[in-house]
């Protein structure tokens, strides 16, 4: 019997999306810049770079905190807690974000268990 794939809450996807957007913007600025630096420094793209990367940084912090929703029971779950690592089965020992690596085995979390219904889903 084929194992059904676990539903995903697209938690890691948020950060990939942010990274891709930042790289795309940077490429756009580089490719559209003029060879003359003083003119480039005056251009709108160059002036947008600062605010854009500040905004990206803020979005990163917001994305990290933004709670996830269990795909089974629709309960909202915090992204910072003392989670149990599915690789080594150990607790983190302190409140940590789900996007951080395990303190024991340095593995990234790929799945997580709902606090309420105890079912597993992909992050
Ligand atoms: Zn671990
Ligand atoms: Zn649940």
Q: How would you describe this protein?
A:
The protein is of the alpha+beta class. The chain has 2 domains: 8-66; 68-123, no CATH class. The protein has helices at 11-32, 37-42, 44-65; strands spanning 68-69, 76-77, 80-81, 96-97, 111-113, 120-122. A two-stranded antiparallel sheet has the order 1-2. The chain has a two-stranded antiparallel ribbon with strand order 3-4. The protein is elongated. The protein starts with 10 loop residues before the first helix and ends with a strand. The model has no long low-confidence stretch (mean pLDDT 91).
Shape: elongated
Structural class: alpha+beta
Cofactors, ions and other ligands in the entry: zinc ion
User: Order of strands side by side in the largest beta sheet?
Assistant: 1-2
Radius of gyration using CA atoms only: 20 Å
Q: Biggest sheet, open or closed, and with what strands and sense?
A: 2 strands, antiparallel
Q: How would you state the average pLDDT, rounded?
A: 91
The H/E string reads HHHEEEEEE
Number of strand segments: 6
SSE layout:
Elements: H1 11-32, H2 37-42, H3 44-65, E1 68-69, E2 76-77, E3 80-81, E4 96-97, E5 111-113, E6 120-122
Antiparallel strand pairs: 1-2, 3-4, 5-6
Helix pairs in contact: 1-3
List the defining traits of the structure above:
single chain, 123 residues, alpha+beta, 2 domains, two-stranded antiparallel sheet, 6 strands, 41% helix, binds zinc ion
Summarize the structure.
The chain is α+β, with helices and mostly antiparallel strands and 123 residues long. Helix content is 41%, strand content 11%.
